[in-house]
């Protein structure tokens, strides 16, 4: 009886985790393994009905993908550069806006609760509804953006196209930052609650101004949270598919051709699932390397600080 009780106590946590593990296996691991297998096959629309019997191509899809002198590799490299620039700008702007807003709202003043609710509104809205709204705002002839910039403020000589050409990158960046920065604001605002007020009072008695308090107390105290926050924002923005797909449709402009939409086009538009799967595997490997390197660098930084 005692052995049964001990077995139940030890095995109960694993039994409770079993449904989540099975769901993880079905939703993530099984498709991932299938995608890796597909990357080694010549899987086009001619073989999609019987993809298991598609010809084995070994590393052929990967060689085509990384051949940057060929059209497929050249467009993938361009998409990679665009995605890196988009992700870095998104992460930097989201962190800057979120941190500044969180620090500003630490002070007690009338209307602080209302401002907090307003700042969190973009994060609470459904992604598709928010991006579709922005797509209407960026319309050339009837959009509110051109109405304000051209008709009201007269900052442009003509109504620019925001969803076509080079301006599409700026439009994509604005939408991504608008819907993502409240998450940074929420995380930093919660982390600021753990900083003792005595530190700021002592710094003020020593003659430290607001800027010096932020630089010497706030930012060092937020370093552990910021390390995780920056990584999460980077992974979200680098893998973002919903925003460009809803904003531009299946064919994103060249200036806003993110890797996620590029892989989608290679797989579901041109029906070359083998090449698209190879691109997905390379993307996974790149993100794993970046994540591992970032975690290693941050852990060494914490040890040196300690």
Structural features:
306 residues, mainly alpha, 2 domains, MetI-like fold, 13 helices, 0% strand, globular
Number of domains: 2
The top level CATH class name of the largest domain? Mainly Alpha
Structural class, judged by helices and strands?
Answer: mainly alpha
Distance between the termini: 49 Å
Task: Report the sheet with the most strands, covering strand number, pairing sense and barrel closure.
Answer: none
**How much beta, percentage-wise?**
under 5%
Which word captures the global form? globular
**What is the CATH superfamily label of the largest domain?**
MetI-like
Rg from alpha-carbon coordinates? 24 Å
Topology readout:
Elements: H1 2-38, H2 60-66, H3 71-104, H4 112-119, H5 121-124, H6 127-137, H7 144-152, H8 167-192, H9 197-205, H10 210-238, H11 242-248, H12 259-269, H13 273-305
InterPro entries: ABC_transporter_permease, MetI-like, MetI-like_sf
Protein name: ABC transporter permease
Organism: Streptomyces nigrescens
């Amino acid at each position: 009886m005692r052995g049964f009780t001990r077995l139940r106590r030890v095995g109960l946590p694993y039994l409770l985790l079993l449904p989540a593990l099975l769901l993880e296996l079905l939703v993530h691991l099984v498709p991932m393994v299938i995608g890796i297998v597909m990357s080694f096959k010549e899987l086009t629309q001619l073989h999609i009905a019987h993809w298991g019997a598609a010809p084995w191509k070994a590393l052929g899809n990967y060689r085509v993908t990384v051949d940057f002198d060929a059209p497929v590799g050249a467009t993938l490299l361009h998409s990679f550069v665009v995605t890196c620039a988009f992700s870095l700008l998104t992460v930097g702007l989201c962190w800057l806006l979120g941190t500044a807003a969180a620090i500003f709202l630490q002070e007690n003043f009338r209307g602080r609760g209302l401002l907090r609710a307003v700042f969190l509104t973009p994060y609470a809205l459904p992604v598709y509804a928010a991006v579709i709204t922005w797509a209407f705002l960026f319309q050339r002839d009837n959009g509110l953006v051109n109405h304000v910039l051209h008709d009201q403020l007269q900052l442009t000589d003509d109504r620019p196209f925001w969803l076509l050409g080079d301006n599409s990158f700026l439009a994509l960046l604005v939408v991504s930052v608008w819907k993502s920065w409240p998450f940074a604001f929420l995380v930093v605002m919660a982390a600021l609650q753990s900083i003792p007020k005595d530190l700021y009072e002592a710094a003020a008695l020593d003659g430290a101004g607001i800027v010096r308090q932020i630089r010497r107390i706030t930012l060092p105290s937020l370093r552990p949270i910021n390390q995780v926050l920056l990584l999460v924002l980077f992974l979200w923005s680098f893998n973002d598919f919903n925003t460009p797909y809803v904003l531009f449709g299946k064919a994103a402009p060249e200036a806003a051709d993110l890797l996620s939409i590029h892989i989608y086009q290679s797989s579901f538009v041109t029906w070359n699932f083998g090449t698209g799967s190879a691109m997905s595997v390379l993307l996974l490997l790149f993100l794993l390397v970046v994540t591992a390197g970032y975690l290693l660098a941050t852990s060494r930084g914490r040890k040196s600080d300690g």
